[in-house]
Amino acid sequence: MPFTNDDYLPTFEDLQVEELKLSSAPLRAGAHHFGKYCDNQCKEFMLCNEEEKDPRKCLNEGKNVTKCGLEFFNKVKDNCAVEFTKYWKCVDHSDHDMSFRHCRRLQSEFDKCIFDKLGQERPPLGYFSKIRVHNTTRPKPERKLNLPEKDPLYEIGPDLANPPPSIKTGSRII
């Protein structure tokens, strides 16, 4: 879809945000706790994305997810750096698909540290796939239905609405 000068595009200042400078292994290792810690921000972003159907309208919600992620991983760095580093390195070197199965002992050490220092339990299996209600303060967007105008060429006239039956077969097919 081409853009015109009338289209709103965010400025570089609107898009500027401090990024999470982590590779895939630490993100995968901390994903369960990160998801639970930033649950409201993530759900708010996904709700905005689903309702608005325009990523430009959800920039602030996306920034809040990134901000929460930075806050979480900084807390992990300050409180559980040793356990987390051992765990994500194990995940990184475990398999080609970064499987958790070889790192369960280190995972339990990391989970214990998160519980002791941050007071957060590891979410149970299936926690993120369950249906959970999210209450939001963001107003519901108004939807405009862009229906086409009635085209007079496609109107069914009285002569075509009930065609006469065919003489040979008695069918209504013309």
What is the structure about, briefly put?
The protein is an all-alpha fold. It has seven helices and no strands. It has helices spanning 12-15, 24-29, 31-37, 39-52, 59-94, 104-118, 158-161.
Describe the structure.
With 174 residues, the protein is mostly helical. It has one domain. The protein is 49% helix and 0% strand. Helix 4 (39-52) crosses helix 5 (59-94). The radius of gyration is 27 Å and the shape is elongated.
Looking at this protein, list some descriptive labels.
174 residues; mainly alpha; 7 helices; 49% helix; disulfide bond; repeat; CHCH
**Residue-averaged pLDDT:** 87
- Largest β sheet strand count, sense and barrel closure: none
Rg on CA atoms, Å: 27 Å
CA distance, first residue to last residue: 41 Å
Q: What's the SSE pattern?
A: HHHHHHH
Structural class: mainly alpha
The number of domains is 1
Q: What is the overall shape?
A: elongated
Per DSSP, what share of the residues sits in E-state strands of 2 or more residues?
Answer: under 5%
Tell me how many strands there are. Answer: 0
Number of helices: 7
Residues in helices, as a percent range: 40-55%
Low-confidence stretches: none
Give the arrangement of secondary structure elements.
Blueprint: H1 12-15, H2 24-29, H3 31-37, H4 39-52, H5 59-94, H6 104-118, H7 158-161
Helix pairs in contact: 4-5, 5-6
